[in-house]
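lol forgot to send this yesterday, sorry. struct tokens for the thing we talked abt
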């Protein structure tokens, strides 16, 4: 016997089926108490009685209550998942803010080290200048020049007082413009550079304090996310237990069912976001192609005009050829007529006539006709030659117009719908970055992690592109600034995709690998994995590593 396929039903369908089952059971089995204390006997004599309207209504209310409880439990399950998602995003944002604070601290630490090194070098130059100044003062004193006492240079008051006194000693002469001026300049530079080093030191301390505060916030957000995960698990377990009881299934079956429903919802939402992104990209591409379309129309119009010119030239050529042929035929007839006239004149001259005078007149008339016919033949021959040249020019113009029209038609750009939404093959550097990221799939997430086997989102991107020879900061905000902007429709494998409300609130980054997928380190408790890039807060522009 062939078995009937089992049809899966949702909770509402199950509840409705339960309602029908309850009603049918009440009606057919007679399990409901009589509507009155003394019912009328059945016509058939049976002791069973039909359920009353109140009994049926009560059974239906019970089923409706069960439907409401199922819906409430499902809503509680989904709300717990939403709360967890919010907590994870807040933790990710806090972690990336800490990464940004670390980047700024590293930069200010380096800036202080550079400023301090410059200040120390200037102070060493100042010390040398002071020694040189003292040597000049001593030599001047030993030579007998009046320095108002050597104590003027060595008395207390600090280096500035010494330089001030030395610069006022007229007896130093030429040396004043050398050693003293050099020492004064060294003192000025040393003072300015030391002040700059102090400012860099203050900035470094401020950045250090900010980094510590960001680390504290990130740790608190991480703990909140962990607590939210635990609370979510407890709330979902309670909701699953309720659903299992109401649907008369197991908790494990309900968990798989709820996960499947949420996955389907996520996939539908991702598909909708992908469709919206593609529609937006198509709109941008359509706008960007409007100029090309106008150029294509102009080129097509030019080609049409040139084609018309070619046809006109062909028509002119045909007319010119016909004129040439007609003129040539007339010239040939005129030449034949001239030949005939000359022959007649020759025959007349050779013949005899009644009178010499009449004969001479006849011969002269024949000669004139022959000359006139010959002149007409020559004119027609010249006209035929001109017609031949005009026909040749018309043919050349038509052929040139044909070539120009053909060339113009080849220059008209074609538009293939959907061609703007394509994925090109990755270049060798992008392939290295993708290979590195894919080799980390399965590693666990760790906020602030940058390898070798624990990663956060920006740490994974930094490591992957570092393996390809490109330096990126360990901070998604910096990676946004360090990459070239491009719309999602132009993404190629290896490009970066960013998530947040806007560029200032980026909390996550992943690496695009094609077909709407990315490899990324998602959040605490998850492993590096490949998944859809169409999260709800995907930014409309990606980043290409330069």
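and heres what i got for the seq, position by position
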């Amino acid at each position: 016997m062939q078995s009937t396929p089992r049809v899966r039903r949702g909770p509402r369908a199950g509840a409705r089926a339960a309602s029908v089952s309850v009603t049918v059971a009440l009606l057919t089995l007679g399990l409901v108490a009589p509507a009155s204390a003394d019912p009328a006997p059945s016509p058939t004599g049976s002791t069973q009685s039909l359920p009353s309207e109140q009994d049926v209504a009560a059974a239906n209310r019970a089923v409706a209550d069960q439907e409401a409880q199922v819906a409430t439990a499902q809503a509680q399950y989904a709300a717990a998942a939403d709360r967890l998602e919010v907590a994870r995003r807040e933790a990710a944002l806090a972690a990336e803010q800490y990464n940004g604070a670390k980047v700024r601290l590293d930069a200010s630490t380096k800036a202080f080290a550079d400023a301090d090194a410059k200040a120390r070098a200037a102070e060493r130059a100042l010390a040398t200048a002071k020694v040189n100044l003292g040597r000049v003062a001593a030599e001047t004193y030993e030579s007998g020049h009046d320095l108002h006492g050597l104590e003027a240079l060595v008395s207390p008051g600090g280096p500035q007082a010494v330089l001030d006194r030395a610069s006022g000693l007229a007896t130093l002469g030429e040396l004043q413009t050398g050693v003293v001026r050099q020492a004064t300049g060294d003192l000025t530079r040393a003072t300015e550079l030391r002040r700059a080093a102090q400012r860099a030191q203050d900035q470094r301390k401020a950045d250090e304090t900010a980094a510590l505060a960001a680390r504290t916030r990130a740790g608190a957000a991480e703990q909140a996310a962990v607590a939210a995960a635990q609370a979510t698990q407890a709330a979902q377990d309670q909701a699953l237990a309720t659903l299992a009881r109401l649907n008369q299934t197991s908790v494990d079956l309900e968990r798989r069912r709820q996960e499947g429903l949420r996955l389907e919802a996520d996939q539908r939402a991702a598909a909708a976001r992908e469709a919206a992104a593609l529609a937006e990209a198509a709109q941008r591409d359509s706008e960007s192609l409007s100029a090309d379309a106008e150029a294509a129309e102009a080129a097509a119009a030019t080609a049409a005009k040139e084609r018309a010119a070619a046809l006109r030239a062909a028509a002119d050529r045909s007319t010119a050829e016909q004129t040439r042929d007609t003129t040539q035929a007339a010239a040939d007839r005129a030449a034949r007529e001239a030949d005939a006239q000359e022959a007649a004149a020759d025959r007349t001259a050779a013949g005899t006539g009644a009178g010499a005078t009449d004969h001479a007149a006849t011969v002269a008339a024949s000669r004139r006709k022959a000359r006139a016919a010959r002149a007409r033949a020559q004119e027609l021959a010249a006209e035929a030659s001109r017609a031949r040249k005009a026909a040749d020019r018309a043919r050349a113009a038509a052929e040139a117009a044909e070539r120009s029209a053909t060339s113009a038609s080849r220059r008209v750009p074609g538009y293939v719908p959907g061609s703007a939404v394509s994925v090109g093959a990755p270049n060798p550097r992008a392939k290295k970055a993708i290979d590195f990221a894919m080799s980390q799939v399965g590693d666990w997430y760790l906020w602030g992690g940058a390898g070798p086997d624990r990663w956060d989102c920006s740490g994974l991107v930094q490591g992957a592109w570092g393996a390809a020879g490109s330096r990126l900061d360990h901070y998604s905000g910096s990676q946004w600034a360090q990459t070239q902007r491009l719309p999602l429709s132009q993404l190629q494998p290896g490009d970066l995709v960013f998530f947040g409300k806007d560029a200032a609130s980026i909390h996550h980054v992943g690496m695009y690998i094609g077909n709407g997928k990315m490899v990324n380190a998602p959040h605490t408790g998850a492993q590096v994995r490949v998944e859809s890039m169409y999260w709800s807060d995907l930014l409309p522009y990606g980043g290409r590593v330069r």
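The beta strands are 444-445, 454-455, 483-487, 496-499, 508-514, 517-520, 529-532, 541-545. anyway ping me if u want another try
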